[in-house]
Amino acid sequence: MSTLEIKGIVASVAGKQILNGIDLTVRSGEVHAVMGPNGAGKSTLSAVIMGKPGYEVHSGEVLLDGVDLLAMPAWQRAQAGVHLVMQYPSEVPGVSLADMLAAAFRARGRGTNGLIAEVAAEAGRINFPVALLDRPLNVDLSGGEKKRNETLQLAVLAPKFAILDELDSGLDLDALRDCAKRVEDASNTDGPSGRLGVLAITHYNRLLAELHPDRVHILVKGRIVAAGGPELADELERDGYEAFSEGVAAQ
Amino acid sequence: MTVASAAVLPSADEEVWRYSRIGELDLAAFEPAAVKSTVTGAEKLPAVDESLISRLVAGLTMHDSFDELSAEFNCTVAISVPSGIVLHEPIVVTHHIEGDAAALYPRLVVHGGANSEFTVVERFESSDDTRALVVPRLVLQADQAARVSYLGINLLGPRVWQLAHQQATGERDSTTLLATVALGGDYARVRTDARLVGQGATTKQVALYYADGTQMHDFRTLQDHVAPRTNSDLLFKGAVQDSAKSVYTGLIRIREDAKGSVAFQTNRNLTLSEGAWAESVPNLDIRTNDVKCSHASTVGPIDEEQRFYLESRGIPPDVAERLVVLGFFDDVLALLPVGELRRDLRARVAAKLHHVDSRAGATR
Fold it and tell me: How many CA atoms lie within 13 A of B275 on its CB side?
């Protein structure tokens, strides 16, 4: 059983404070949703956890099983067991998925013998065309193909925790179901790192209809203004973010 | 000797020598010497007619005093593939550059008879302690419908200067590929003029260059559309590291009669160190309408988003950088005419990547 603890995170980007004290704890096998309107700080939260350059953390900590992730560069955080599924995965010309995963395996001291077969099997599981595996990363892939590619990497690298940054944005329903199902399976099944803990950051609740979160957190203006069970997402769907925004103003 | 001592060298004030290191050259310090060259793959070809060589060499435009010096001191290798002949294995010409303070003038004449198809590889090699000036000339002619590919490989040592001039001429419906891989040399310059003189002719120019230490690579290209419905495409990709420099200047010229022509030109440069410098100057000179042209050029460091993407998968910065740089060169490597050489050249590129900019990800 692993624990990812986000404690009192205050962070800024380009000199502007975006996160005003975030507290959140995710354990193995749990699915947490962080929902918020545009500009609430959703992507900043994912960037800060992963260690994307350009983001400054002023206070607070992110601990993985008690180990301080913020002291590590991104690649060490990934090796420690945190994986970011990106909203806009970068194109990397000339580098195939297999090259990248082989490098990621070697960096972890893992052998690459069964890698191609494993990638092919995972591709089949989420309906990612095998013909696309030799393509340079994300180059000329459609929005849906990119997200399946991201999900495939998550499945093969089998981290302890996955941060899904708007996995559902721009995704057709079939791709959304395939990706969400794969993530949910990982959270329900013991893998090499135990059951996957998930932090799903999203604007809309259509992902949650597929992913079935245990906890829902509402992020507004850099603060978690409400937290509860899955019913909170329904409440949000009914009342909109405005109902929660007023709560922030009153604080 | 009289030619050498009387030669008036070009200066960096001339546009085509702008940014170059020509001002550092002391030509009098170099003594003309014979070039040791070996040729493989041409054993079954008939001897080349002297009058053909003379005719082709006479067509070489004399740009500057180095062309005159080459005319005086050249050691010529000539290859002519008769009409209709297709060679499946490349002809490989290797120049073994040797000596201390030698000036060497290798000249390669390549002729593809009508409807012939073949590849010529020209290798320039020297040891690390060789100090020399190499002034290569390439005269390449593709007759009607010939498919001629050329790959020049610069593996020169760190004390060698290269001042190359290449001129390729494509007759009706011919296809020429002019490829260069430049990894060596102290200052290495290649000027390539690709002329499309017969209608429907096609030329492609490709280069991979990578300079480190105090090296400088310098490319001047011309895509010269003389005849109607001619096609040219150029992709030059380079990297500079440490305090190395590179220059690319390229001109697409569509002449008055070259209606219906299509020309593309792309130059991309990676600057891998703070002290490295790359210049890229694309130019168009279009003298008719009904043409399709585009050019693009970029100079910049490794894309931070690409680096972060790979690092977020647990890949350390040095490995991520290696993947991105080799990936950057992947498309030019794929365009090189001899597939068997790609693995070796890729490994040589990888071996150049000795430095790692180990900027850590955002921490507190």
Answer: 10
The reply to whether B330 falls in a domain is no
Domain residues for the domain of A14 are 3-250
Cα distance between the two ends of chain A:
35
| List of residues 6+ apart from B23 with CB closer than 8 A | B11, B12
Provide the domain limits for residue B144: 2-301
Closest residue in A to B319 (Cα–Cα): A103
Q: HSE of A133 in the Cβ direction (CA atoms, 13 Å)?
A: 21
Asked if residue B82 has pLDDT above 70, the reply is yes
Q: What is the SS3 string spanning chain A?
A: CCEEEEEEEEEEECCEEEEEEEEEEEECCCEEEEECCCCCCHHHHHHHHHCCCCEEEEEEEEEECCEEHHHCCHHHHHHHCEEEECCCCCCEEEEEHHHHHHHHHHHCCCCCCCHHHHHHHHHHHCCCCHHHCCCEECCCCCHHHHHHHHHHHHHHHCCCEEEEECCCCCCCHHHHHHHHHHHHHHHHCCEECECCEEEEEECCCHHHHHHCCCEEEEEECCEEEEEECCHHHHHHHHHCCHHHHHHHHHC
Does residue B355 lie within any of the structural domains? no
Q: Which residue of A has its CA nearest to B331?
A: A94
Residue of chain B minimizing CA distance to A51: B362
Is the complex ipTM more than 0.90? yes
Is residue B333 assigned to a domain? no
pTM of the model: 0.92
B327 and A100: CB-CB below 8 Å? Answer: no
Quote the minimal CA–CA distance from B331 to chain A in Å: 7
Considering only CB atoms, A103 lies closest to which of B304, B323, B329, namely B323
> pLDDT tens digits for B240-266?
999 999 999 999 999 999 999 999 999
Q: Given an 8 Å threshold on Cβ–Cβ distance, is B312 in contact with A73?
A: no
The domain that contains A98 carries what CATH number?
3.40.50.300
Structural domain tally of chain B? 1
Contacts of A52 in chain B (CB under 8 A): 308, 312, 361-362
B contacts of A104 (beta carbons < 8 Å): 313-315
First to last CA, chain B: 67
B169 CA to centre of own chain: 16
Query: Which of A50, A52, A67, A150 to probe by mutation at the B interface, max B CB count within 10 Å?
Result: A52
Please indicate whether, in this complex, the C-beta atoms of A86 and B312 are within 8 angstroms of each other.
yes
Distance from C-alpha of A189 to C-alpha of B337, rounded to nearest angstrom: 50
Residues of chain B found within 8 Å of residue A137, distances taken between Cβ atoms = 309
Write the pLDDT tens digit of every residue in B126-154: 999 999 999 999 999 999 999 999 999 99
User: Which residue in the set A55, A72, A95 is minimally distant from B323, CB to CB?
Assistant: A95
Q: Are B154 and B181 in contact (CB under 8 A)?
A: yes
The residue of chain B nearest to residue A85, with distances taken between CA atoms, is B312
Please indicate, yes or no, if residue B325 is contained in any of the structural domains: no
Count the domains in chain A. Answer: 1
